[in-house]
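Quick illustration, no need to memorize.
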Amino acid sequence: DKLPKDAVFHVMALTSLQYLTILIPIALFLSIMLALGRLYRDSEMSALMACGIGPAALYRPLSLLAVVLALIVGWLALDVSPGAIYKIQLIAEETKKRLDLRVLEAGRFINLGQADAVMYAETITEEGVLGNVFVQRADGADVEVIVASRAWQVQSEDANVKILTFADGRRYKGEPGQPEFEIVSFEEHGIPYALPDTRPVEMKPESRPLLDLLGTDDPELKAEFQWRLSVPLATLILTVIAVPLSRSQPRQGRYGGLAAGVLVYIIYVDLLAAGKVWVEREQVPPLLGVWWVHALFLLVGGILLARQFGYMNRLIFRSR
């Protein structure tokens, strides 16, 4: 269903809030990799290490930034984004309740399903007044064609019925294949339009408020709760991984490590999505849920850090 122009920007703003929960973690992750990768490539990191500033010291400012962004992302994922999704559902349902001529496009045939009619307008004003209008609709065995210079929409006494009002036109009505047709010229003519039946908006798991997800036995709601908590948690873990993953050689290309970072992010998100589905289908216990994915990538980050600090070489040397 098309939206009125005054609702399009509202929906776009609400949708952008949902995307922020995805964009902020990946933006932080890649920006850290780009910034530190440049320091390695220009040998500036070697100079910092010579001054006693190693990768561990980098975590102090980065951790502060990551915690702040994780709190923001957590607020968006736990509260703002579900509310935005629900409002979009309400707007979509409200659109079904009314035929708003402002959503029509000039120069295109529009199917008015409830009225069993097809409409065409050469021009449409911002107020919803149509110019040079053509309408064809079925009326039993007859076909009715209306051609008018102008048309607009009027609310009837019944809240579920609107009237399409035409001005300065002609109405042709008859049965196809028969020679007899009724032709009427009019100054004003109206067609009642019954609005489609609507149902109360059913809240999906992703649009439910946080309190609905607490203390529930529904596997879908449990999975949704874990997914929302995963967003800020992944923001912190990606920050841990970004530091060792950004390490590169001086002559290495600018975007060499970036490709690996994007791959790590894709695998991370895909595993989280798979874990969420498994919780919904009760294929894994809720206690395990999606937390194993975070533990796995935290372990990967720890291994990369141990390798960067030389701990891996020490362990191998001691084992020998």
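The first helix runs from residue 5 to 41.
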